[in-house]
Amino acid sequence: MKFRAVMIDTGPMREFSNIVTTISKLSKECVMRLSDDKLYFIVSEDNSGPTPPVLWCEIPQDMFFSEYQMIGIDEDHKDIYLGVVSANLARSLMTLKSAKCLKIKLTKKQCPCLTLEIEMPSSTSQQTRQVTHDIPVIVVPRKLWSEFQEPRVPQPDISIELPTLKQLRTTVDRMRTMSPEIVIRASSEGRLTLQIKTSMAKVSTRFKDLRVEAFEGPIDHSDSETESQTNEDMSNVCYCRVDAKKFSIFLSADQISHNQTMCSIVHKKLIILCLQTEENVKLQFFITGIVY
Amino acid sequence: MDDGTSEYYFTASMDTGKSLYSLLKAIQFQECAVFSAMSEGLKLTVEEGKCVQASAYIPADNFTEYHVRTDVDVMFKISIAVLTECLNIFGASEESSLKMYYRSEGSPLLLVLQPQSVHNVMTDCEISTQTANSVLELKDEDASEVAKLVLKATAFLGLLADLERSCDIIELNLSPDHPNVSIITYGMQDRSCIDVPKSADMVESFSCDQPVTLKYQLPHIRLIMKALAISSKVVLRCSSNGILLLQLKLEKEDQRQMFSEFYILPLLDD
């Protein structure tokens, strides 16, 4: 097993640091999967079972790394899976925003480590400083690889563009103080509604004129808990009730500069939030619906 | 008014709900407030025990449209915490217009908010209302005013912030003679004293004919700190029955004025 990569461009370095920071907010641990053409970050819930992971992130290596070499376990198992404490990685990569160069390699010290060598410019002279971080990792054995496979999710009923994440996050954070759960509703006419209901208040924020990428309606509401809005045709509306905190954490990904965010909803079961960047990084968050 | 809202008990709209938000935030030390709409303006009142009463008053001219039925009492209890969260739903950096509707007794208070910079989004809130408990009547016409001070709010805020947090009791000594104002706090093992002569920078005006000593719970006095932070001046009035009244005017960019008022009951001598 061997892995060695070099990053020299400031844009991707900043991006990489932002991605890892976002992941560290989401979970204590994550799995870093290295393959020939892509680097993956995967976060799954402890008792994952058949549920999709919480986060699936794909980073095309050629957009980020100027050098990238790796050799997997053997011919049939070309990838490397590493378990890492995401906060450790995030903290070490914090300085990347002002760094000149990052070398990252898999090393064997007292335990397997990801060694980051970061070259920092000096503010006073032409010389540079070199900072080395050794981050302990766990090499995930082959028999557990299947737990980190690409998620297979049901066909979403709707995929709709999201408004700016910053705006969305402000609103979700206000709602979060009032209720632990938020209902997200999307219609094929491009409307997205966030709603909370408590004994004190009912608050709905409606966005309209959003682009709908796909709609697989009509939606069957026959078993619904009478969300009757008599003047609206419900067959083009689907919704999902989710944990407000998880939703808000995803929205903190707004610090990753992105060009597209989509929200896909599997009616009542799942929402998939997908963020794509200039550099073709794809971040997908999966939030399972709360059903009573 | 022909838009079908004329039979509503109360309707109002405003171009920006921001100052209303900061005013309400300043008196939000309890979960619930009494909301009362009068033809002169809107008033929200919060009480702590029966010891402190704070109210926010928004004269009707702050609203672009303000309508309240005069043949009924428009008064109800509402969660001020929820109300402020709703007013701030688009965040502090966003100016948003606000409309309020209250149909009749028992109906929820409806709010419609729309940010000024983004047009494809709006929020509507239905906040449940309850029958209001009566509010303490602390204005006593028979009690005379024994002292009146006008202080600079920031300086007074700084003074309160300097007081030892663990102290329970604050004593206010006002006198026509030097030092005109002396503030004494009593803690577990200490006593500290701050003198403020009327010539001090922070005192804008001072009137007091007879020396007077009043004691209050310090935590009660601290409740005004948020309001001080958004005001430029504070008027303190001590009445002969010991009740301290603090009146503050919200600092705003436009000419319209909004106020907050705190009545604080004194500690009786033991």
From TrEMBL, chain A:
<dbReference type="GO" id="GO:0044778">
    <property type="term" value="P:meiotic DNA integrity checkpoint signaling"/>
</dbReference>
<dbReference type="GO" id="GO:0030896">
    <property type="term" value="C:checkpoint clamp complex"/>
</dbReference>
<dbReference type="InterPro" id="IPR016580">
    <property type="entry name" value="HUS1"/>
</dbReference>
<dbReference type="GO" id="GO:0000723">
    <property type="term" value="P:telomere maintenance"/>
</dbReference>
<dbReference type="InterPro" id="IPR007150">
    <property type="entry name" value="HUS1/Mec3"/>
</dbReference>
<dbReference type="GO" id="GO:0033314">
    <property type="term" value="P:mitotic DNA replication checkpoint signaling"/>
</dbReference>
<dbReference type="GO" id="GO:0000724">
    <property type="term" value="P:double-strand break repair via homologous recombination"/>
</dbReference>
<keyword id="KW-0539">Nucleus</keyword>
<dbReference type="GO" id="GO:0006289">
    <property type="term" value="P:nucleotide-excision repair"/>
</dbReference>
<protein>
    <recommendedName>
        <fullName>Checkpoint protein</fullName>
    </recommendedName>
</protein>
<dbReference type="GO" id="GO:0005730">
    <property type="term" value="C:nucleolus"/>
</dbReference>
<dbReference type="Pfam" id="PF04005">
    <property type="entry name" value="Hus1"/>
</dbReference>
<dbReference type="GO" id="GO:0031573">
    <property type="term" value="P:mitotic intra-S DNA damage checkpoint signaling"/>
</dbReference>
<comment type="similarity">
    <text>Belongs to the HUS1 family.</text>
</comment>
<dbReference type="GO" id="GO:0035861">
    <property type="term" value="C:site of double-strand break"/>
</dbReference>
TrEMBL record, chain B:
<comment type="similarity">
    <text>Belongs to the rad1 family.</text>
</comment>
<dbReference type="Pfam" id="PF02144">
    <property type="entry name" value="Rad1"/>
</dbReference>
<keyword id="KW-0539">Nucleus</keyword>
<dbReference type="InterPro" id="IPR003011">
    <property type="entry name" value="Cell_cycle_checkpoint_Rad1"/>
</dbReference>
<protein>
    <submittedName>
        <fullName>Cell cycle checkpoint protein RAD1</fullName>
    </submittedName>
</protein>
<dbReference type="GO" id="GO:0000077">
    <property type="term" value="P:DNA damage checkpoint signaling"/>
</dbReference>
<dbReference type="InterPro" id="IPR046938">
    <property type="entry name" value="DNA_clamp_sf"/>
</dbReference>
<dbReference type="GO" id="GO:0006281">
    <property type="term" value="P:DNA repair"/>
</dbReference>
<dbReference type="InterPro" id="IPR003021">
    <property type="entry name" value="Rad1_Rec1_Rad17"/>
</dbReference>
<dbReference type="GO" id="GO:0030896">
    <property type="term" value="C:checkpoint clamp complex"/>
</dbReference>
<keyword id="KW-0234">DNA repair</keyword>
<keyword id="KW-0227">DNA damage</keyword>
